[in-house]
Amino acid sequence: MTLEIIGISVLWLFLFLYVIVASIDFGAGFFNAYSAFSDKQHILTGIIQRYLSPVWEVTNVFFVFFFVGIIGFFPQTAFYYGTTLLVPASIALILLAVRGSYYAFATYGAKINHRGYIYMYGLSGLLLPAALSPVLAISEGGFMRLEGGQPSLDYWALFTSPLMWSIVVLSIAAVLYISAVFLTWYAWKAGDEKATQLVRKYALIWAGPTIITATGIIFELRGHNPEHYANLLNLWWMFALSFLLFLGTVYLIWKKRNYGLAFILLVGQFFTAFFAYGASHYPYLLYPHLTIYDSFTNESMAIALIIAFIAGLGLLLPSLYLLFRLFLFDKDYVKGKSDYHA
Amino acid sequence: MGFEDVALQSRILTLMTLSFHIIYATIGVGVPLMIMIAQWVGIRKNDEHYILLARRWARGFVITVAVGVVTGTAIGLQLSLLWPNFMQMAGNVIALPLFMEVFAFFFEAIFLGIYLYTWDRFEDQRKHFLLLVPVALGAAASSVFITIVNSFMNAPQGFDVLNGELVNVSPLLAMFSPAVPTKVAHVLATAFMTSAFVLASIAAYRLMRGSNHIYHKKALFLTMKLGLVFSIATAVIGDFSGKYLAEYQPEKLAAAEWHFETESEAELVLFGVLDGEEPKYAIRIPYALSILAHGVPGAEVTGLNEFPDDEIPPLWIHYLFDTMVMLGMWLAFFSFVYVVGAWRGWPLIKKAWFRWLTVLTGPLAMLAIQAGWWFTEVGRQPWILRGYMKTSEGATTSGQVDLMIVLFAGLYVILGIGTVVVLSRMYKRNPVEKELAQRESEKGGEE
Ligand code: HDD
Ligand code: HEM
Ligand code: HEM
Fold first, then answer.
1. Which A positions 256-275 lie with beta carbon below 8 A of chain B?
2. pLDDT score of B3
3. What are the TM regions of this chain, as residue ranges (chain B) (predicted)?
4. Whose CA is closest to atom 37 on ligand 1?
């Protein structure tokens, strides 16, 4: 394995983890707002506050890890993506600020439960994937021009591209689906029958759109980026595996059985699809300008970063284990029997 | 729109985001240590008041941390968005500490989550106290790492440039630039000092507003003592920072001191206005600049005449430097008077005007932090990477920075107001007296 591959794998893995934990967070916020809207708020709010409030900062660090890490391993991405993404990334930052401040002001702080705020927080959960996912479309090439050596984004081409819009729809559907499956499990662990039934229904509703848009994107790619499409087809077996895992999750949720296993299968489904997609994108970070080889940092930096990463993991994994043991796997905590908030 | 304009706009946006983030970051670095000390004293003395102090501070702290995380994420991403050319180069050489910083964030965020949600969950208070250690360490480590990056921008090393290519990169050498020792130490000491004074301000304010509870008195005395210790440390390390500048960035020191000609036995110029190259209405302290720069009155101090005109930082940083130093001196002096007064039982420290001055310590320390950062960052101009890359060369070419300035200005106003409103509402709804009474009755019920 070359250093380049190690670097991109580490980043891709952390991006994957971000996608999962952030989806749970984003989707929960949306469901919360939706139930406030339809006056069922009490069913979900407790669960959201018990699970999400202690961990949202950790979720955010996964995001920071990705954009700091990619500049470290592939500094040239700063030049291409940094120059062109000013507007979409700034919008994403504002939306992240809405979420962060909701936790700060409404759940930790003075318990401001103004409806408008709950709606904004919920809406930001849908707008964020919509703001972040166009990066994936941009990386397929065709939306960025070099003018006098400086990259710039062709907004018109981007906004009229069916590829971009299918990625946006997929990201929203996936967020809601992932979140609903997780919350079904969590609500069931909490012994909250009403909440379980509610989110279980959401999980079943969003399963269809997720898989349909995901398939749609593969076909969009055929026209947009034939090279990538061909690579995707070579990895058809991974997508087939992913699809089987998807069926497993839906089956279990449908039968009201083994919600924990259902969530694990869901993680497996996204893991295989995400890595198959990533592998087929190889070696490009940005078609056709940037590959992982010509944008890579120097060797001594790469080695230093990998050593730091391994040392960091040594610190991180036990701490994460402790966090999850206390908040995810602790029966009394999950059931809301014990409240030890400062 | 000209190229220069975008660079200026990027500077304004960077300045805005960093100045806002640094408020929360300073609290984020310093307050965990204060909570730790209070909780430790409480456990040692078996004193409910200190434990409750730690608990109430922790409650407010979560809110500032959350806003700190939001603004920190903004600046982290903005560095790449606004300075892509610089980050492309810097990424090759100084990415290591930036990367390590992320692990410090993880560490801090994880244990903060645990700490906050486990009050009274353990039988043994000391176990809970231990959870705070990684929070304080993580916060301090993240400021150390980011300051290392900033040091590199001021004193770059650890690479060679050959035909426009970066070669012989040594990440460790780049990390330990000569600016690191003084910068890191000064930043940490000032964060602790500022946090102590901010908490002192709050206690003093409560005492002003009629709550004469012993709880606030204990809080005030504790934080003023800590403020005194750290402001002395700050001044001593600040003196070393001056010596660092004289050695490695003489143009910054010379611009800060309006020191135009290289000369020995240099005098220190405080405030005043500039008439050509002549400071007017200024306070002049003989030999002081030579002492600040090299430790001896007779030493020679490099003047601005040794640098080309286009490499001289803006001369108005003089006022920033003076502001920082005067505030540092004042806060050390004031906290000294307070601590001695409290020991000796001087009635002075209970006078209303003295209390008001005590309330001011927190805001003044925060002002000194701002002045310090503006001084050191503006004083690096025109360089973004001293000696290698000018700020205008590092900037983005995107045409929409002006719009983003407006957008983020709005965001920071809302976040700033939100923090103040939420914090004051939170404490008003649940005053100490009420909480103490509640805890008393709970205890009574158990026994
Ligand atoms: C509470 C805030 C505060 C206070 C009271 C002081 N400082 Fe400071 N100073 C800072 C907050 C600060 C800072 C914000 O932390 C800076 C900005 C960048 C840095 O490294 O630290 C800084 C930078 C800084 C520098 C520039 C270092 C560099 O660019 O590398 C010098 C020479 C001093 N300080 C010297 C002093 C002296 C002699 C003080 C006398 C009491 C003093 N500071 C008080
Ligand atoms: C260019 C300068 C800076 C950058 C790029 C930066 C970046 C960041 C980022 C990305 C976060 C969010 C981390 C998370 O998601 O948890 C953050 C938070 C934080 N930053 Fe900054 N930061 C900078 C300056 C500073 C300085 C100067 C200090 C300390 C003196 C500091 C201390 C902290 C701390 C302690 C936090 C954790 C949140 C808190 O406790 O408030 N940062 N920073
Ligand atoms: C550690 C905490 C830091 C603080 C509080 C800080 C503060 C500031 C301030 C106040 C300015 C505005 C100066 C001006 O307009 O002339 C500035 C400029 C800037 N800083 Fe820093 N800085 C920090 C570290 C960093 C780091 C780590 C980086 C990059 C990795 C960085 C990059 C820049 C850039 C690119 C500018 C714009 C150029 C300029 O106008 O000076 N800063 N910073």
1. none
2. 44
3. 20-41, 61-82, 94-117, 129-153, 184-207, 219-238, 316-341, 353-375, 403-424
4. B238
B255/B304 Cα distance (integer angstroms): 7
Question: Residue B26: what pLDDT?
Answer: 94
Tell me the sheet residues that pair with B390: B383
Under 8 Å between Cβ of B348 and B341: yes
- Residue percentage of chain B with pLDDT more than 70: 96
pLDDT of residue A87: 85
The answer to whether B140 touches B29, Cβ cutoff 8 Å, is yes
Contacts of B86 (CB under 8 A, 6+ apart): B384, B385, B389, B393, B394, B395
Nearest Cα to Cα of residue B425 among A103, A108, A97: A108
CB pairs under 8 A between A and B: 231
> End-to-end alpha-carbon separation of chain A, Å?
47
Atom 36 in ligand 2: which residue has the minimum CA distance?
Answer: B25
What part of B 114-153 touches A (C-beta under 8 Å)?
A: 114-121, 134
pLDDT grade, residue A341 (50/70/90)? low
A108-148 pLDDT per residue, tens: 665 666 777 888 888 888 898 888 888 888 888 778 887 77
User: CB A342 to CB B55 under 8 A?
Assistant: yes
Give the Cα separation of B64 and B202 in Å (integer). Answer: 15
User: In this structure, how many other beta carbons lie within 10 angstroms of the beta carbon of residue B353?
Assistant: 8
A300–B73: do the CB atoms touch at under 8 Å?
Answer: no
pLDDT of residue A337: 58
Average pLDDT of B417-445?
Answer: 75
Amino acid in the structure at residue B56? R
B362 residue type, one letter: G
How many angstroms away from the CA of A275 is the closest CA of chain B? 23
Q: Does A309 touch chain B (CB under 8 A)?
A: yes
Report the distance separating Cα A199 and Cα A180, nearest Å.
Answer: 5
Q: Which contiguous run of DSSP H or E holds residue A24?
A: helix A3-37
Residues from chain A that touch B91, judged by Cβ atoms under 8 A, are: 71-72, 74-75, 78, 297
Which residues of A are less than 8 Å from B398 in CB distance? Answer: 83-84, 86-87, 152
Cβ–Cβ under 8 Å, residues A120 and A149: no
Give the C-alpha separation, A225 to A229, whole Å.
Answer: 6
B300-301 and B263-264 beta bridge pairing? antiparallel
